[in-house]
TrEMBL record:
Entry superkingdom: Eukaryota
Provenance organism: Ciona savignyi
Protein name: Uncharacterized protein
BP term (GO), one: cellular response to amino acid starvation
Pfam families documented for this protein: C12orf66_like (PF09404)
Alphabetized Gene3D superfamilies for the sequence: 1.10.3450.30
Length: 347
């Protein structure tokens, strides 16, 4: 009887010891992965600070590569089943960030299809996040992984709001750069509905400036140096022989937007070529043509895109209406405002 009782107690002690060892091993593994996660999270925060310092200026290839590296390394660092929810949250965050950066780069390169796919990928996740964020409005919730730059008076996720603003800015740029593609892919009412939903309607505001200030024309010119094929409006099926119309071009430049469509573009291309150094310094350059009796004003809007205003007769380079228009459009086209929201300590 005594020996039987001793055996039972010994078995119980062995089971408890094994259970304790397993628990300690599990806790140790989770703590180690959480430590790796914290270190990786610091890398991610450093990336946001880098985006702030770079003002998200094109090209964005380096930032895209760094996000891709983080996205690939995270699953291995937090692979335990207990941390799957954390892994899913971070993976979605980096997926959206990468899609937004890639979309920004492809819009700058006038890559219609690539930018559309990336924006759709980002939008899909942001739509999924929105109800989660809105459900916590008015509560004391402060998301542990989505609280970057969160205002103390706004419980909603600061990072979600920042990404939503980033997306809306890209959407506005997309409708401006690819206006002609959008205008040929749907009805006038559908296009009007699309433009009414963007944060800043560049086309409508530009047309308003043209009418109000007696400008004649607005052009967007794409630098096509190094491109094997001329830029195409919209998407082209590689298996079809009938390709969509190409933008009007001459040598190293192509006109991708012409509002209203009528202009001899050769003086515009000459102006860009002759004043390239000044354009890279973010200056507004101009050229008055005696032959056409027009004045052409130009500024660099993006890495490869120039915005041109055509005026009848002679216009002074210090014309306040011109300066106001260029400043307004360029400030809304560039991603500097979005980058500044990432300033450390920003509230």
């Amino acid at each position: 009887m005594f020996l039987s009782t001793e055996k039972q107690e010994l078995k119980i002690n062995l089971v408890e010891t094994e259970s304790n060892v397993e628990q300690e091993s599990l806790i140790s593994a989770i703590c180690l992965q959480l430590s790796d996660f914290c270190a990786a999270r610091l890398e991610c925060l450093s990336l946001y600070i880098q985006m702030y310092k770079s003002t998200l200026s094109s090209p964005l290839h380096t930032l895209c590569s760094e996000v891709e590296v983080l996205l690939e390394s995270y699953p291995a660092k937090i692979s335990h089943d207990c941390l799957k929810r954390i892994q899913d949250c971070v993976t979605e965050e980096l997926t959206v960030l990468l899609a937004l950066l890639q979309a920004g780069q492809k819009i700058s390169e006038w890559n219609y299809t690539g930018a559309l796919y990336d924006m759709d990928e980002a939008h899909e996740v942001l739509v999924r996040w929105k109800p989660l964020v809105m459900n916590h409005q008015g509560s004391t919730f402060r998301g542990s992984f989505f609280s970057f730059g969160e205002k103390s008076s706004t419980p909603a996720s600061g990072l979600y709001l920042w990404m939503e603003k980033f997306f809306q800015t890209l959407k506005s740029r997309f409708t401006f750069y690819f206006y002609e593609a959008l205008s040929t892919s749907g009805s006038a009412d559908e296009l009007k509905q699309i433009l009414s939903r963007v944060k800043y309607d560049f086309v409508t505001k530009s047309m308003s400036h043209i009418k109000r200030n007696d400008f004649q024309q607005l052009l967007l010119v794409l630098d096509t140096k190094g491109n094997d094929m001329p830029p195409q409006v919209g998407y082209s099926f590689p298996t079809l022989s009938d390709s969509p119309p190409t933008a009007s071009s001459a040598g190293d430049y192509s006109v991708v937007l012409n509002l209203p469509p009528a202009c001899n573009v050769q003086p515009v291309f000459s102006l860009i070529n002759d004043k390239m150094d000044e354009l890279k310094q973010e200056k507004i350059v101009y050229y008055s043509s005696v032959e056409t009796s027009k004045t052409y004003f130009c500024a660099q809007a993006d890495q490869k895109i120039f915005i041109v205003l055509v005026c009848g007769g002679y216009r002074n380079e210090k014309d306040s209406n011109l300066i106001v228009y260029f400043n307004e459009v360029l400030n809304n086209l560039k991603l500097k405002k979005i980058a500044l929201l990432l300033k450390p300590g920003n509230r």
